[in-house]
Design goal:
By secondary structure, the protein is an alpha/beta fold. It has 2 domains: 331 residues, Alpha-Beta Barrel (TIM Barrel); 97 residues, Immunoglobulin-like (Sandwich), CATH 2.60.40. It has 13 helices and 16 strands. It has an 8-stranded parallel barrel with strand order 1-2-3-4-5-6-7-8, surrounded by 5 helices. The termini are far apart.
Length: 470
């Protein structure tokens, strides 16, 4: 489904089995059972140990600073709600117990292919029944979908990516039929997947732009309220490829620009790419139209050099929150489940937050990696909270993020997430006196911290800690 990432290094063997132990197995069984029982209430109320309080005034977290987000940002957030981390999946048919386990992590978005060739096997005859079943599976858990309109069809253009008027028209008619079939279901429709890598016989920015424009015009005429995004730019970050589409007028039709900013460096290094992208979008955006960037795919493989399952888990949470800092309202993590082992492409098999083997009749049905618990923790801790700002505490490599509670009430409710790119060291966060609960990135309760007249002293580490006033 998703293109192979052959660009990455293959210099390290998987470390997953060194992390997962019998103790972890027992723990995860009890943990996941508890999460499954409590999941429906997690979005409705906070746990007693991290209850909401009135935000302090006159400090780093003041009433003025938590007053809310501007109207345009709120509109964008609403388009991509709920604000949770999403996951790539590779199937339209969930295994028994799979969706329960995924939903228990707090995930409320999935991304997968809507494959042209498999849904139009005779010209003009469309079969979306597999995706009807997928949507029926997602609905009970409140999970929304991003469906990728992608790839080629052997019925047209010799099985290559559409390059002539006939092929483009056929693709656009198929896309229109799909969007109309699922209209009103809250689906995001993404125009192709990494065309700067996967376009056949070779990447062609002009041909992609012509196809995307043809599809955009068809969707606007048939279902103008649906959310259409693109181009799912690959890790190569070929801004010239994207600019061809922007010059062609795609921002008249795209609600957002989607990118896949893979890297083997810390997530925070993405800032310069986003700065370039924001400027490029501003250059071509129609007057008065605010067009955000969304991250529709990004993950870290545990077999990359210098990586293991623990580092993957730390980077998962940092990736999502780094995106929020940079104004990215939507993040899909690649991947949900490890792919089948492939000696020729080992990194592709190790992006998941759960291991590959399926355990029928057991809950959880997959053995989770630490990244599963990292996703569960950040999703549950921040459910119902919006990112407000980054609080400066000294170094540019220190990150303290302020989140506020949804809704407009007299009370200012807030939470904090904090980590560093540097070695462990103490900092003082400017908050008012009081006791603050401290939660590790894997959901372990740490000793509470007490803020004095100077603020809250905390030792920052390379994994997020989650803080809430008691």
């Amino acid at each position: 489904m998703i293109t192979s990432r052959s660009f990455v290094l293959r210099t390290q063997e998987p470390k997953g089995n060194k992390v997962f132990t019998t103790f972890h197995a027992l723990f995860l069984l009890l943990f996941c059972l508890g999460v499954l029982l409590l999941a429906p209430s997690m979005e409705a109320q906070d746990s007693p140990s991290t209850q909401d309080v009135t935000a302090p005034a006159g400090s780093g977290v003041s009433s003025a600073e938590t007053e809310g987000i501007d109207e345009s940002s709120s509109r964008i957030d609403a388009l991509f709600a709920p604000q949770t981390l999403g996951l790539n999946i590779h199937s339209t048919s969930a295994l028994p117990g799979e969706m329960e386990m995924m939903a228990a992590s707090g995930v409320r978005w999935i991304r997968t292919d809507l494959d042209w060739a498999s849904t139009e096997q005779s010209k003009g005859i469309y079969d979306f029944s597999a995706y009807d079943r997928l949507m029926a599976t997602l609905n009970p858990y409140g999970i929304r979908a991003l469906l990728i309109l992608d790839y080629a069809n052997p019925l047209y253009d010799n099985g290559l990516s559409p390059y002539d008027d006939v092929g483009r028209k056929a693709f656009a008619e198929w896309a229109r039929a799909a969007v109309c079939h699922f209209a009103g279901r809250g689906i995001l429709w993404e125009m192709y997947n990494e065309p700067d890598l996967t376009w056949t016989p070779k990447p062609n920015a002009e041909d992609y732009a012509k196809l995307a424009l043809t599809v955009g015009q068809a969707l606007h005429a048939a279902a103008s309220n649906e959310i259409y995004v693109g181009p799912a730019l690959s890790y190569l970050m070929k801004f010239s490829f994207l600019e061809t589409s922007l010059k062609a007028g795609l921002l008249q039709y795209w609600t957002a620009v989607s990118v896949h900013p893979y890297r083997q460096t810390p997530p925070e290094t993405v800032e310069s790419d986003y700065t370039t992208l924001h400027a490029l979008i501003a250059k071509y955006a129609p007057p008065g139209k605010q067009i955000p960037i969304i991250c529709s795919e990004w993950g870290y493989s545990t077999v990359w050099s210098g990586f293991d399952e623990v580092k993957q888990a730390k980077f998962l949470a940092r990736e999502w929150m780094t995106n929020l800092i940079n104004g990215i309202p939507f993040t899909i993590w690649y991947d949900w489940r490890n792919d089948p082992a492939n000696p020729k492409d080992p990194e592709e098999a190790n992006f998941g937050i759960v291991l590959r083997p399926y355990h029928r009749g057991r809950m959880p049905v997959f053995n989770p990696k630490p990244a599963y618990f990292a996703a569960t923790t950040v999703n549950s801790f921040l459910v119902g909270y919006n990112f407000v700002k980054r609080i400066e505490v000294g170094s540019k490599n220190d990150f303290v993020l302020l989140f506020k509670k949804d809704g407009s009430t007299a009370e200012r409710r807030f939470r904090l997430a904090a980590w560093t790119e540097d070695a462990d060291h103490p900092v003082v966060i400017p908050v008012e006196r009081g006791t603050y609960s401290d939660l590790s990135y894997l959901g372990k309760s740490l000793p509470p911290l007490t803020a004095d007249s100077r603020g809250l002293t905390i030792t920052l580490v390379d994994a997020p800690q989650y803080l809430a006033p008691e």
